[in-house]
Amino acid sequence: MSSDETPSSDFVVTDRRGKDRRAHTDRRTRTIPVAVERRGGSEDRRQVGERRRQVDPTTCERDYDDEEITFMKAMDAYKRANRRPFPTWSEVLEVLHALGYRKVAEPTTLPGNPVLPEKNGTHE
Question: What is the DSSP code (8-state) at residue 22?
Answer without folding.
Answer: T
